[in-house]
Amino acid sequence: MITKGDGMGGARRHGGRPDLVRARVQQGMSQESAAQALGVTPTTWARWERGEQGVRASYRPRMAALFGVSAVEVERWIEGWSHGETSSWPTTDLGDSSPAATVKSAALLWRLEMDPSRRHLLASLPFVPSALGEWLVSWNYGTPAASAARRGAGRVVGLADVARINEARKAFGQMDQRFGAGLVRPVVVEYLNGTVAPLLRGHYDDRVGSELMTAAAGMTWMAGWTAFDLNRHGQAQQHFGQALRLAKTGDDPLTGVWALAALTRQAIHLEQGTWAVWLARAAADTARRAEAPPRVMSLILVKEAWATALQVKSAEIRDGRRAKQVERLLTEAERAYAKGTTDRDPEWTSRFEAAELNAEVGVCWRLLGEHRRAADCAEAAVTEFSERLPRSVQFNQVHAAEAYLGMGELEQALGTARAAIPVTKALTSARSVDLLQRFSGQLEPYGDTVAVREFRDHLNSELIA
C-alpha cells in the first residue's frame, strides 16, 4: 500500500522496501555502514527500509552510486513500482488519442518536470529504442480522436490563447539557438506546467482544440529539443513522444512529421542507425500522405539521407547501394527545397533555412568519405550563419575540422576546431562540448605530435575555466 508522501521525498510504504534491504545485504553491509556511507543516521536508514520515512531526492543518486545501479532502479526500490505501472514513470502511450487521455498524459509529464523529487529521475532516463516501435505503430495505424473538443473544468480557451503559446515557443526557440538549451529549458518546462497544462484542462470546441493540441505539441517539442541539447536523452524522448501524441489528438500530420524528424535526429546522434532510418521513413510517408509542402519534404529527405549515410559509415563493408541511395535522397531534398515556400508551410520550417540544409548535406558527405565536399558545405554554412546562430556556427566549424582531418590536413583541422572553442564556452549546450571532445578523440592517430598535445591542453583548460 502506498500513501501520500510525507514531505521528506517519496511516499511512505507500509509494506516496507524489501528491494532496498536486499541490495544492502547483497553488498554485505549493515544498516549502520550503509547509513554512514550516505551520511544519515542508522535510525533514518532503518526507517527507510521499513517504509516509515520517505527518501529525499538528494540521497537517491548517492544510493545509486553506493550500490552500483541506475537511478531508475533506486526509484523502483523506494517507490515500489515497475516501469509503466505508476504515474511516477511518465510513459507515452499513443494508443488512446482522446483529448482527456492526452491531456492527462501531457500534464503528468510537465508536472513531474517541476517536482524536485522526480526531476532528477527524468533527467537520468535512458533513451529506449523499443518504445519507438509502439509509437510508430500507433502513429501510423491508430485512429485520431473524433473531436479535439473538451468540456473541462478550466476556463474557456480561445484562439488568442493558442497564438500566445505559439509566440512564446518562437521566442524560446530564438533563445535556444543563440544561447543553448541550458538557459532556456527551465523557462520552457515552467511555461508548460503553469500555462499550457491549465489551458488543456479548459473548455474548448473542436477547432480551438485542434489548434491547442498543435501548439502544446510545439511547446513540448521545445522541451524535448532542449533536453536533447543537454544530453538528457530519455527525457527528450519522452517529450518528443508526447508531441507526437498531441499531434495525433489534434489530427495534425505535419506536426507529427516535426516530432518524428526530431526523434530521427536524436537516433542519429545516438548512432541508432536502423531506428533513425525507420523514423525518417515514417515521417516521409506521413508527409506524402498529407501532401506536405516542399520545404517539409526537403527537411525529411535530408534526415533520411543522414540516417542512411550513418548506416554506410557503420557497416564493416562499404555498401555501394546505400551510398547511391544517400546521393539520391540528397538530390531530392535539394530539389524540393529549390521549389520555394508556400502558404501551407508550418511555422517551424522557418528554422530550416538554406544554410541548415547545406550543413546537413555536408555531414552526409563526410559520412560517405567525401571530405572535400563536406568541408565546403560546412564552411559555407559557417559563413551564412555568421553571428546570427552561434551554436550552428560552432557545429559547422567542428564538422569542417572533422572533414579536414579526414583529408589529412591536420594543421587546418586544428585551426578550424580551435576557432570553435570560444563559442562553445559561451553556449549552455552539452552537445557543443561533446562535439569538440569527439573531435579531440579523433586526433588519436596524431596524439604524439606537439600540435595535437597543445590543442588538447588548450581545449581542456578552456572547457574547465
Blueprint (SSEs and pairs):
Layout: E1 2-5, E2 11-13, H1 18-26, H2 31-38, H3 42-50, H4 60-67, H5 71-79, H6 99-114, H7 116-124, H8 129-141, E3 150-151, H9 159-179, H10 181-200, E4 203-204, H11 206-229, H12 233-249, H13 253-269, H14 273-289, H15 294-314, H16 320-338, H17 354-367, H18 371-385, H19 390-406, H20 410-426, H21 430-442, H22 450-464
Antiparallel strand pairs: 1-2, 3-4
Mean pLDDT: 90
Q: How many extended strands? A: 4
Number of domains: 4
Q: How is the largest sheet built, in terms of strand order?
A: 1-2
Q: Provide the gyration radius in Å.
A: 24 Å
Choose one word for the global shape: globular
Query: What pattern of helices and strands is seen along the backbone?
Result: EEHHHHHHHHEHHEHHHHHHHHHHHH
Termini Cα gap: 50 Å
| Fraction in beta strands | under 5%
Number of helices: 22
Q: Give the proportion of residues in helices.
A: over 70%
Low-confidence stretches: 1-13, 81-89
- How many strands, what sense, and barrel or not for the largest sheet? 2 strands, antiparallel
The SS-based structural class is mainly alpha
